[in-house]
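Internal ticket #5521
Category: modeling
Description: The requester needs a full-assembly model to guide mutagenesis choices. All entity lines are attached below as received. Residue total reported by intake: 580.
Assigned to: D.W.
Attached entities:
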Amino acid sequence: MNDDARPLPTGASGVYLYPAAFEQVVAGLRAGIAAMAADEPFQRLAVPPVISRATLERAGYVASFPQLLGTVHSYPGTPAQWAELAPLAATGGDWHREQRIGDLVLLPAACYPVHASLAGRELAEPVRFAVEASCFRQELTSETGRMRSFRMAELVTAGTEEHCLAWRERWLERVTDWLAGLELKPSVEVADDPFFGRGARLYQAAQRMQQLKFELRVELGEGLVQAVASANIHKEHFGEVFGFTAGGEPGQTACTAFGLERITLALLHAHGPRTGEWPDGLRAQLGLDR
Amino acid sequence: MNDDARPLPTGASGVYLYPAAFEQVVAGLRAGIAAMAADEPFQRLAVPPVISRATLERAGYVASFPQLLGTVHSYPGTPAQWAELAPLAATGGDWHREQRIGDLVLLPAACYPVHASLAGRELAEPVRFAVEASCFRQELTSETGRMRSFRMAELVTAGTEEHCLAWRERWLERVTDWLAGLELKPSVEVADDPFFGRGARLYQAAQRMQQLKFELRVELGEGLVQAVASANIHKEHFGEVFGFTAGGEPGQTACTAFGLERITLALLHAHGPRTGEWPDGLRAQLGLDR
């Protein structure tokens, strides 16, 4: 097999094709995450790259991060009406002027369908989900690791505040150790999300003050440090908006998220583009010799 | 592991979450396709669910299938401008009235980025790619197997007409045998694509007359037969639009496509929702006992 793992540019910024050697590393990371998660009863779900627009509106994503959201539009006309637009498709004209927004948007994070699926439940015990999805964010820059289309693996839990706090603390430590075991020298930082519009700074300050988000950051290029994973609590936000409870109170949630491409890019930066030349121990750890 | 493989509805038509037992079957199908492909030098690529809009315009997809295309739009305004729309996001209003079409669309079939990547090349030898992607089509109905978001595995080749004809013939036979080996009793049918607008019937008749597309159809529900795979030639279409050649002529292309969810749904229909109760031989063939 060709062992050059470098992503292939597509001409669209932040959108790449991934060769077999890259995917082998991704598979190794998935297996590593699954091994860490083996001692908790996670329900595994594969999540598609689109989600109900109403769900994201309800979740507050639209209000908070409109600049990152991709909405899905389609052509509502008849074949006869299309006759007028069809010639524009051949000549680079605005054939798309009649496109209408639909009921779906691009998924910005893997956990949203899970939170929405809890609507109406009283959680007698904590629930746990292990999900992966191809996510989309309309990023304006495209330095290494800043992709518009990327894959996110997430471990998600919902339950009481006490459970979520302890769970996030345990996973923050575990993921830090795992990344250190991959020799990626992660730094752990209190972080915030890129809220948009009025109140953004206030939200970010509150998020930092309450330590809702920790990022694990590693080097992806010379002097270029990016978050490759995060461990987060959302307090009662999703319990309130989707209507689920734990112990009679609005349910709380926590998650730990893994940027599969970013971790792989960090390994590529550390050890070079050819996985065949990576250290034996790392190759074994990622299952590359199978 | 819970062995109930049934997809979980999300509330959005044609969009599902997939449990671990379903994904195990998908993994078995992937391995089966890879095993069939092992005697040809396929280059494996993971393909993201979005693609350059210009590429699909150039490929003729917009002109032929505008009714199925999902275009990706985003908010181009400033945080200050958003202040006017933000309240609408909370109240179900048209916060999306300023969304603008961007440079990406949702990928409708896994092979497009591959065809586009050949631009400018003279193919001295045939090239072969094995790809998988999450695809999107704005389907108007949602009977079993009719999804808007679904995964497609494809084997793609490009070269001379002679090569493509022989390759498609061999793969049509191979895939028919493979599906029969999964006891799915495929029927092989000359088929056409859902062209839209003026000329649609003419295109479809020409496509059938030249036998460009063969579908492999199996039962997914009582009396519900759907195509689960196809074997296609596109003649010099992609060679002409993207500008690659083989033997000095516009390059020709062929592909065989696998609907991973549809094949799995056909197995669920044939053997029931619990994969633990499937016949031993089938379980072994799909690697479900590992």
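Resolution: model delivered.
Comment from assignee: The mean pLDDT of chain A is 96.
Ticket closed.
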